[in-house]
Design a protein that fits this description.
Aspartate Aminotransferase, domain 1, Aspartate Aminotransferase, domain 2, 41% helix, binds pyridoxal-5'-phosphate
């Protein structure tokens, strides 16, 4: 992998020499990404090739419609770009059809609802405060205003380390499905540290005559890399984001069975969107090809072993692991056993000052609001890309525990920040760009 974008542009700064205000901001953000720890579970460092495609002249082209059926002229090349992205997506996930146009994961989900449901239809999805996403029927999301959402949750936590609980309660999924007769069941989560098997969802969906959508936003890259089971053989439709573990540009995509292709495509355009972002579609094509390489299998496996090492380190610092641990890229911790007074909001702010970037998160049955929370969510996708390993994760856990214990001591937080910077300097996300002095 070369760090030099194929179009000769540096991803930040150089092409903005006429706009020093913005060039300065890009340099500041580059410094932030390079010198602080990126532990937000939904973030990653894309390759220079993905940056190059995202920054390419394909942004100039209007391409409403689909390859071979566009509303504007001049799309001969664009059609090939989008076809390449679609072919690579279907090959990567073993699907019949792909739509690579959704601008984001949220839009992909809305498109599926629009394709498969009438307003007022019932949808069964995961409870928001137990790991579900806003687009799974949050009162704040349009999804809950158009469709009727009912929910399932997790089994209770238990003290038995062999059966820690806080896993998807399939008895509850089945009970609610039989009672509510949803037209669609949504599997998938935004804050859940275990693998999600699609097969039990499929059985329940078949029993009650529902369709099954799997929202693969978080683990899409783990599926591509063989580190998480693939839901495609079991689901009618799978939505995902391309920027989380899949390590592509910011965006969404949908794969589905052949018989739903037309409905899904019409729901994305003209149902929800206008012209597609073909520069981002090209970058998705780059990312799908990268994710099909053998190195990406190693990457996905390392993301998971790093998350386990981080979880083990955090448990040793006195945090409680929600679901008792992790088998994907993320770790959800309950702060209360570490310090009952410490909220997720304060912990996030303290760690930001220490150069450790992550997000607060509700934990199951959180007594605090979603704005304050009693938990933190951490992920290893980005720093694994930068080359960190299990020993580094142990060090990260130690620094988090130390910073939070010493949170009222500015000098200690500054010391942690310096240690964080030293660790990050050993694992730069874009080493050859740095070497060329262009960042
Ligand atoms: C991130 C995420 C989304 C939304 O993706 P955006 O690109 O932020 O719109 C949808 N569903 C789940 C489960 C997610 O984690």
């Amino acid at each position: 992998m070369t760090d030099r974008p194929a179009n000769g542009a540096t991803p930040w700064g150089a092409w903005l020499s006429d706009d020093p205000e913005l060039a300065k901001l890009l340099d500041e953000e580059a410094t932030r990404q390079r010198t602080t720890l990126q532990l937000i579970a939904s973030e990653n460092f894309t390759s220079p090739a993905v940056l190059a495609a995202t920054g390419s002249i394909l942004t100039n082209k209007y391409a409403e419609g689909y390859p071979g059926r566009r509303y504007y002229g001049g799309n001969q090349v664009i059609d090939e770009v989008e076809d390449l992205a679609r072919q690579r997506a279907t090959a990567l996930f073993g699907a019949d059809h792909a739509n690579v146009q959704p601008h984001a994961g949220a839009v992909a989900n809305l498109a599926v609802y629009q394709a498969l449901l009438e307003p007022g239809d019932t949808v069964l999805a995961m409870r928001l405060d137990q790991g579900g996403h806003l687009t799974h029927g949050s009162p704040a999301s349009i999804t809950s205003k158009v469709w009727r959402f009912v929910s399932y949750g997790l089994t209770p936590a238990s003290d038995d380390p062999r059966h820690p609980g806080e896993v998807i309660d399939f008895d509850q999924v089945a009970d609610v499905a039989r009672r509510e007769r949803p037209k669609l069941i949504v599997a998938g989560a935004t804050a859940y540290a275990r693998q999600i098997e699609a097969e039990p969802f499929r059985q329940i969906a078949d029993e009650v005559g529902a369709r099954l959508m799997f929202d693969l936003a978080h683990p899409a890259g783990l599926v591509a890399g063989g580190a998480h089971p693939n839901p495609v053989p079991f689901a009618d439709v799978v939505t995902f984001t391309t920027h989380k573990t899949l390590r592509g540009p910011r965006g969404g995509a949908i794969v589905c069975r052949a018989e739903l292709a037309k409905q899904i495509d019409s729901a994305v355009f003209p149902g929800l969107q206008g012209g597609p972002l073909e520069h981002v579609v090209a970058a998705k094509a780059v990312a799908f090809a990268e994710a099909a390489r053998p190195e990406f299998r190693d990457y996905a496996a390392r993301v998971v072993t790093n998350a386990r090492a981080l979880a083990t380190g955090l448990a040793a610092e006195g945090f409680r692991l929600v679901s008792g641990g992790t088998d994907n890229h993320l770790v959800l911790v309950d702060l209360r056993p570490f310090d009952p007074e410490l909220t997720g909001k304060v912990a996030q702010e303290v760690l930001d000052r220490a150069g450790i970037t992550l997000n607060r998160n509700t934990i199951p049955d959180d007594p605090r609001s979603a704005f304050v929370t009693s938990g933190l969510r951490l992920g290893t996708a980005a720093e694994t890309t930068a080359g960190m390993g299990e020993a580094d994760m142990g060090e990260v856990a130690r620094l988090i525990g130390h910073a939070l214990r010493q949170r009222d001591d500015d000098a200690e937080l500054a010391r942690v920040r310096a240690e964080v910077a030293a660790l990050c300097a050993e694992h730069p996300p874009y080493p050859s760009l740095d070497a060329a002095g262009r960042s």
